[in-house]
Amino acid sequence: MSTHIKEKKEKIEQILTKLTEDSAKGKLIVVEGAKDAQTLRMLGVNGRILQIKTGGKSFLEATTEIEKLKPQVVILLLDFDRRGKEGTKRLKQDLERAKVKVDMSFWRGLQALVGREVQCVESLNVYLDTLNSKVS
After folding, report:
1. Which residue in 30, 34, 56, 133 is deepest, having the highest Cβ count within 10 Å?
2. What is the pLDDT of residues 26-61, one digit of tens each?
């Protein structure tokens, strides 16, 4: 099968491995909803994951909640669709204003690899399964 597909799959797995490691070191991961968090758990991420869309929280409420947790670094991993991109930008600005360090590397890396094919974090495991079946 295509080496391009195999390379893409390996790059995604490398990003997810690093995400799992950083999460285990105490970095807080912020996602949109419960299904996103559940998918990350299925992919092996066991650290702290905060869902910001639970109960229709505003960005201000989410920022305040994150500040109270006093994380050293926040990993933003909102969806890759238009609303997710806007939310990521807004939350990043709000957190930086609150002097919270934001890590965008995972979001950027995944978005660059899955951009048009995956719109939300909750679809990552299904996408990886698809890539695995194409490689096999």
Report:
1. 30
2. 999 999 999 999 999 999 999 999 998 766 677 788
